[in-house]
Design a protein that fits this description.
The chain is an alpha/beta fold and 379 residues long. The chain is built from 15 helices and eleven strands. The protein is 39% helix and 16% strand. The protein has an eight-stranded mixed beta sheet with strand order 3-2-4-5-9-10-1-11. It has a three-stranded antiparallel beta sheet with strand order 6-7-8. Helix 4 links the parallel strand 4 and strand 5. The chain binds flavin-adenine dinucleotide and iron/sulfur cluster (SF4) (3 copies). One iron/sulfur cluster binds next to helix 13 and helix 14.
Length: 379
């Protein structure tokens, strides 16, 4: 592992980028050199609360997707496995994206050799609906008047069309039930170290992106983009490296505090009894890859024609798959029409599984999940 500060040599990209525009520059290098078929990134949709996954094949289109969209809790693992399996792809990944990709690689649903993973450190995402509501309530602003948003020094900051800025402490928003999504508040993987590189503003200087180079492929990306003349790099000072690790440590401590408060409070049976068996949580889950052939669609799970399976039997099947594989991405919470904290339940079980086996879903490289362990193969 090594560290660099990087910035784009292309002024337009540098101006459009969130930090130094390094991520967009690396994408440009990969596309221009023909090393990938396309780039999977996030571009703004109708407004700042809308982030849309986009597959870019022409480097002139990259600028439209530069920047960080904090109200875009998207997932890319399932997009790659469903639509881009045979393509060479470079993709931006938050830690939960990377964890889902890692689990899908273990299931042979994504080819590791086909993808470049450009990690983004992540302090959390805000649900678009929550984002709009909290801006109305705590910023006293029409959400449609917001031009851009950023998270800086613990504040969620908005910039209005007239150029003025307003910021509120994320901690204060979260005390009132707003701010980051619930799963993000307890997410304890903040730097995606199993991506080829992990990029962020922690430890960086103004106009630069701090990059942790995690493997050989990551080093090739940096060297290639430098040799192509699109990226400039320099070494970060030791205190910056230490400061970044310190912030990561603080974020992880805050997450584990939330875990210790939230895990005991959830009553699984009460929650499952409210489930209406709509399958939305299964369909959105990046790890549930086999929806078309899912056992839950089989006759023996259907009680009567056109009815859903018993919610408890349904959740039992999901639990048997997810308890060791859940990457706590929170997509299931986002879509549940009954507001059941599905991810909290599965994440709590994943942590129990971790305590017994040391396996962290989407992170552990050395240990395989049970269904993929040698013992299982021998059986
Ligand atoms: C939700 C979020 C939270 C973050 N939190 C932190 C943090 O706490 N600490 C830290 O050090 N860094 C954090 N980052 C990373 C940081 O904001 C920059 O993305 C990173 O430094 C790269 O900067 P850049 O100028 O090189 O990237 P750019 O050249 O601007 O490229 C950024 C790329 O990220 C993609 N992207 C934007 N939003 C998303 C998204 N929601 N999901 C996936 N891809 C996206 C864009 O499409 C673009 O391709 C966060 C990023 C995001 C998206
Ligand atoms: S679950 Fe973690 S990695 Fe994913 S968006 Fe939330 S804080 Fe970021
Ligand atoms: S169960 Fe929910 S939180 Fe866990 S991986 Fe699936 S969608 Fe994400
Ligand atoms: S989304 Fe909610 S209601 Fe629908 S099946 Fe999942 S837990 Fe049940």
């Amino acid at each position: 592992m090594s560290y660099v500060l990087a910035k784009s040599q292309n002024d337009d990209i540098h101006n459009a980028g969130e930090c130094g525009g390094a991520v967009t520059s690396i994408f440009k290098y990969l596309l221009d050199e023909g090393l990938v078929d396309g780039v999977l990134a996030i571009k703004p949709g109708d407004d700042i609360y809308d982030g849309v996954p986009t597959f870019i094949t022409d480097s002139d289109d990259l600028i439209g997707a530069a920047g960080s969209y904090h109200c875009a809790p998207t997932m890319v693992g399932n997009i790659i496995q469903k639509y881009l399996y045979d393509k060479k792809v470079a993709v931006t990944v938050k830690p939960c994206d990377m964890r889902s990709i890692d689990e899908l690689i273990k299931r042979y649903k994504i080819k590791k050799e086909n993808i470049y993973t450009i990690g983004l450190n992540c302090g959390g995402t805000v649900s678009p609906i929550t984002g709009r509501k909290m801006i109305e309530l705590y910023y006293d602003v029409d959400p449609d008047d917001v031009e851009s948003e950023e998270i800086d020094k613990g504040q969620f900051i908005i910039e209005l069309k007239d150029g003025t800025e307003k910021g509120v402490k994320i901690h204060d928003l979260e005390m009132e039930g707003y701010g980051r999504r619930n799963n993000c508040q307890r997410c304890d993987v903040k730097i995606p170290r199993n991506a080829n590189i992990a990029c962020g503003n922690w430890g960086s200087q103004d106009g630069w992106t701090f990059i942790e180079i995690n493997d050989e492929k990551g080093q090739e990306l940096i060297d290639g983009a430098k040799n192509a003349g699109i990226l400039e790099t320099k070494s970060p000072a030791d205190p910056a490296v230490e400061g970044r690790l310190k912030v990561e440590g603080i974020m992880k401590k805050m997450a584990s505090k939330v875990q210790s408060v939230k895990y005991p409070l959830v009553s699984e049976m009460d929650e499952w009894n409210r489930c209406i068996g709509c399958y939305a949580c299964r369909d959105i889950c990046p790890i549930c890859w086999c929806c078309e052939n899912c056992e839950l669609n089989k006759d023996y799970f259907t009680l009567e024609e056109n009815s859903s399976p018993d919610p408890l039997a349904f959740q039992g099947v999901r639990l048997s798959h997810m308890s060791f594989s859940c990457v706590d991405c929170g997509q299931c919470d986002d879509v549940c029409p009954m507001d059941i904290p599905v991810s909290l339940i599965f994440d709590k079980l994943q942590k129990k599984y971790y305590e017994r086996t040391g396996y962290v879903a989407g992170v552990s490289d050395d240990v395989k999940p049970p269904l993929y362990s040698p013992e299982k193969t021998e059986l």
